[in-house]
Amino acid sequence: MLANVLSKVPVKYHIGLRNGLLYAAAFAFLFGLLSYDIFTEEKETITKETGHLFWKKTTETTIHHDLSERIPYLIVAIVLILLAFVCIVTAIKLILLFGRYKKYLAIIKGNDKLLIQQVADINNSNPLRVRNDLQNMIDSNYINGYYIDYKQGLLVDKNYIPERFDMKIVKCQSCGAGNEVGIGQSNYCMYCDSLLII
């Protein structure tokens, strides 16, 4: 779920996001190990030296730490190591997700419209997952100029013009002339150049 949310981040931040997650995991793991090391110390020896050159006296004092004093360090260690694990898993999921994005991009390139089912079949994947991935790619500007037609299950280039249109005669609101227009297209009157409303 976290990887899905992070996949909507704009494409220019993807590398920084993955690297940030990996660095956060490394630091959390390192500090988790240090905290665990402090937890495992049951006693601490303090050495104190007094006097001068020949009359030096060394005193060693041992302090025993109760379990109740060390438990917070164990809790911190567990939380930090779990955080490191979550960061690593999320970074790996993002890396795999962006690998899928590159495969989709190779399939999409050069196509004006493409069935989502066809993309799913090429990748041997679930069409719902492919549709969500494609929508995330659009949202994060990984691909520009496309939209998803959910009704027909298509990925469509915004500049796509269908080969055939259903034609209709429309009366111009400005000059009253009849114009034959394609349904779904923006058209202008052939006589007065006004926008025709279908």
Structure description:
The chain is an alpha+beta fold and 198 residues long. The protein has two domains: 2-157, no CATH class; 167-196. It is built from five helices and nine strands. It has a three-stranded antiparallel beta sheet with strand order 3-5-4. It has a two-stranded antiparallel sheet with strand order 1-2. It has a two-stranded antiparallel ribbon with strand order 6-7. β4 (146-149) and β5 form a beta hairpin. α2 (14-40) packs antiparallel against α3 and α4 (116-123) crosses α5. It is rod-shaped and about 115 Å long. The two termini are 43 Å apart.
Write the SSE topology.
Blueprint: H1 2-6, H2 14-40, E1 43-50, E2 57-64, H3 67-108, E3 113-115, H4 116-123, H5 127-139, E4 146-149, E5 154-157, E6 167-171, E7 178-182, E8 187-188, E9 195-196
Antiparallel strand pairs: 1-2, 3-5, 4-5, 6-7, 8-9
Helix pairs in contact: 2-3, 4-5
Backbone shape:
rod-shaped
Radius of gyration, whole Å? 33 Å
Count structural domains: 2
Largest sheet: 3 strands, antiparallel
Number of strands: 9
Helix content: 40-55%
Instruction: Estimate the strand proportion.
Output: 15-25%
Order of helices and strands: HHEEHEHHEEEEEE
Structural class: alpha+beta
Low-confidence stretches: none
Mean pLDDT: 84
Discrete helix count = 5
N- and C-termini, Cα separation: 43 Å
